[in-house]
Amino acid sequence: MASQKRITKELGDLMNSPPPGIAVALADEANLYQWKVTMEGPAGSPYAGGKFDLSINLPQNYPFKPPTVVFTTKIYHPNISNDSPPNSGTMCLGMLKDSEWKPSTKMSAVLEFARQLLKEPNPDDAVETKIAEQYRNDRGAYEKEARDWVKRYASGKK
Amino acid sequence: MDSEDEFMSEPPSGDEIDFDEGTQDSDIGSLSGDFDHDHDNGFGYEKDILANPQKPYEVDYRILSPKDIHSHQERQFNEVSSIIELPPEQAAILLRYMRWNKEKLIESYMDNPEQVLEAAGLGPTLAASPKTKTVKGFTCEICYEDDPTMQTYAMKCGHRYCVGCYSHYLTQKVKEEGEAARIECPFDGCHRIVDSKSLKLLVDPSIQDRYEVLLTRTYVDDKDNLKWCPAPECEYAVECAVKKRDLNHIVPTVRCAYDHSFCFGCSLSDHRPAPCSLVKQWLKKCEDDSETSNWISANTKECPKCRSTIEKNGGCNHMTCRKCKHEFCWMCMGPWSEHGTSWYNCNRFEEKSGADARDAQARSRHSLERYLHYYNRYANHEQSAKLDKDLWIKTEKKMTSLQTQSNMSWIEVQFLDTASKALQACRQTLKWTYAFAFYLQRNNMTEIFEDNQKDLEMAVENLSQMFEKPVNELGSLKVEILDKTTYCNRRREILLSDTAENLKKGTGCTSLV
């Protein structure tokens, strides 16, 4: 199967030269398909200073099927669900849909895209419509709430 | 759709018409040539019947086999390809992108080829016909294999991957995602559409077949003048020029090569004489429990004060509403106080308050009875239609036993089969005449319609009776059965012609106004 070599290579690249603010590791040394990512909130966004844990699951037929990306740290963001499990932390990214996913897309691109989304939410494609509305209409309140959540859930103090 | 429908058919008649018709679409005309070679088997006989004059309740249509549909598409690819000077497989992508609007495609392509190509996912064109090759020092960006003997492939966009990955990608798109016309290059951000030549180079024959099926499906789905036969597993499509806006004036009944008869407008089984919109309305009416509320309004009354629904449970007409304690007379609906203290003495019959309530009550009762009148007859014929299958099997048995009991040949006992088919067709028509009649506006046409309906019904019952006689009597009844069969068919024709003509003129249906 193509996936092992590809995943090993991608993982190696990500560990050797990690993209800014992103750290990747295997959740379990014996399992290539389960990744644990720590993402720093981008500077200049209300998430700055926060550390967010993401759980990434690569399907067996990766890269022909898209990975699933889930925020395990609670976050106040229009595109990230804060629903109760199993939907909590799921992201609605166009590129991660079966029909739009391309096998040439790399995990580094996915992760950078996710981080970019922290900087620039996309309220038109929101999972949390209320947050999206607030983001559009009352940016200040949104930023304050987001910062509060960072303090509460993503300050790195466990 | 029920599989029973396939029995709903007359002997092949003049319905399948006109291969030479001067159609508006030039591409359709070009198709007729295909009938001349390789699969005449299913079609040859129909050409001979083309001479039949068309009846008012019939429409022009043509049956298309999967092969026809395929060559139909090919022809258009080649035609467009020769005009805009691009390879046929690229013309195919453009045509699908433009939803088969050839004129629009050629026009906009002539206007701005780059823009059209870009939008359809064909990007800038570079070189040669597709083939795989090995590339020195190549690493596949999907699997990271770098075996120098590995075959690789790239479309004209230049995004090269190993054949294994490319093929896996395409196979998954076709097989799992059911995608065909819009599969893009595997490179992230490249919207170039994978053309059929490239796909065929890379995937297994079974996937190629699936791809063709999917493409064909989009072709028929994309075109308003084409419809799939709705019968399960049937792979034929029908081409018919009847437009959606005409459906109030025409019931375009068509039949595929397997004799599945259906309405081109709504894909339900033959529902002549009732037009599609009325059928939809009727089916909904029969289905939802609006009839429950009809029962309620026919069997209960509302308290004149608080409007609670009350069903009378005793003989006394002095009603006391359980909810608001209002006292009223069940007969006249007027307040009980007006009746004085005497034991029931409803002399208030003309009282306005009571009269209104009674009127509403009567109207509702009448409407329910009217509906039930038509519904019972509709359901009765539908029930008979459901027995069609049994009837048909019985007919075959009868034919066999008649053959052994009398000295008749198989050909000679065919009259039973003909009679059985006529019965079924007439029942189907009768069924829908009742739904039709329910919505019919009362005018002098109604009487003619009802007479036609009555005549057909009588003819059907007569034939039906005769048909159920013991087998040993059937032989001697042959002439009579043949006569009655012809008469049934004629009555059906008259009814259908009449209603079809009235529909065309736009008279008759209340619901269609």
UniProtKB/TrEMBL annotation, chain A:
<dbReference type="Pfam" id="PF00179">
    <property type="entry name" value="UQ_con"/>
</dbReference>
<feature type="domain" description="UBC core">
    <location>
        <begin position="2"/>
        <end position="155"/>
    </location>
</feature>
<dbReference type="InterPro" id="IPR016135">
    <property type="entry name" value="UBQ-conjugating_enzyme/RWD"/>
</dbReference>
<keyword id="KW-0067">ATP-binding</keyword>
<keyword id="KW-0808">Transferase</keyword>
<dbReference type="GO" id="GO:0005524">
    <property type="term" value="F:ATP binding"/>
</dbReference>
<keyword id="KW-0833">Ubl conjugation pathway</keyword>
<dbReference type="InterPro" id="IPR000608">
    <property type="entry name" value="UBC"/>
</dbReference>
<dbReference type="GO" id="GO:0061631">
    <property type="term" value="F:ubiquitin conjugating enzyme activity"/>
</dbReference>
<protein>
    <recommendedName>
        <fullName>E2 ubiquitin-conjugating enzyme</fullName>
        <ecNumber>2.3.2.23</ecNumber>
    </recommendedName>
</protein>
<dbReference type="InterPro" id="IPR050113">
    <property type="entry name" value="Ub_conjugating_enzyme"/>
</dbReference>
<keyword id="KW-0547">Nucleotide-binding</keyword>
From TrEMBL, chain B:
<protein>
    <recommendedName>
        <fullName>RBR-type E3 ubiquitin transferase</fullName>
        <ecNumber>2.3.2.31</ecNumber>
    </recommendedName>
</protein>
<dbReference type="Pfam" id="PF22191">
    <property type="entry name" value="IBR_1"/>
</dbReference>
<dbReference type="InterPro" id="IPR002867">
    <property type="entry name" value="IBR_dom"/>
</dbReference>
<keyword id="KW-0863">Zinc-finger</keyword>
<dbReference type="InterPro" id="IPR001841">
    <property type="entry name" value="Znf_RING"/>
</dbReference>
<dbReference type="InterPro" id="IPR048962">
    <property type="entry name" value="ARIH1-like_UBL"/>
</dbReference>
<keyword id="KW-0862">Zinc</keyword>
<dbReference type="InterPro" id="IPR013083">
    <property type="entry name" value="Znf_RING/FYVE/PHD"/>
</dbReference>
<dbReference type="GO" id="GO:0061630">
    <property type="term" value="F:ubiquitin protein ligase activity"/>
</dbReference>
<dbReference type="InterPro" id="IPR031127">
    <property type="entry name" value="E3_UB_ligase_RBR"/>
</dbReference>
<keyword id="KW-0808">Transferase</keyword>
<feature type="domain" description="RING-type">
    <location>
        <begin position="136"/>
        <end position="350"/>
    </location>
</feature>
<dbReference type="InterPro" id="IPR045840">
    <property type="entry name" value="Ariadne"/>
</dbReference>
<feature type="compositionally biased region" description="Acidic residues">
    <location>
        <begin position="1"/>
        <end position="24"/>
    </location>
</feature>
<dbReference type="InterPro" id="IPR017907">
    <property type="entry name" value="Znf_RING_CS"/>
</dbReference>
<feature type="domain" description="RING-type">
    <location>
        <begin position="140"/>
        <end position="188"/>
    </location>
</feature>
<dbReference type="Pfam" id="PF19422">
    <property type="entry name" value="Ariadne"/>
</dbReference>
<dbReference type="Pfam" id="PF01485">
    <property type="entry name" value="IBR"/>
</dbReference>
<dbReference type="GO" id="GO:0016567">
    <property type="term" value="P:protein ubiquitination"/>
</dbReference>
<dbReference type="Pfam" id="PF21235">
    <property type="entry name" value="UBA_ARI1"/>
</dbReference>
<keyword id="KW-0833">Ubl conjugation pathway</keyword>
<dbReference type="GO" id="GO:0008270">
    <property type="term" value="F:zinc ion binding"/>
</dbReference>
